[in-house]
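Posting this for the archive.
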Amino acid sequence: MSQRLSISATVLMALSVALGLYFAFAAVQGPSGILRRIQIESETAELAAERDRLKAEVQEMQNLTRRMSDEYLDLDLLDERAREVLGLIRADEVLLR
């Protein structure tokens, strides 16, 4: 004698399997799933690296600004910037390009 599942038990089992598959899919692909978390962690690392680069650039600019201020004038930096921005050279220098 083989036992067969009743229709309600079969429907309940199919519904349970479908619900389990839905939750498994949502856990992997959903808006707060594993793949989205990996993507967010990657973006976070990229943005942290860019933030650190920008912080270093800001510190460098602050240093240059301080060195060109009225309180502290770096003559070497002033000479370097004048040469670069204005294209100035001394009379005894030779320009190589």
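The mean pLDDT is 87. The helical segments are 7-29, 34-67, 75-86.
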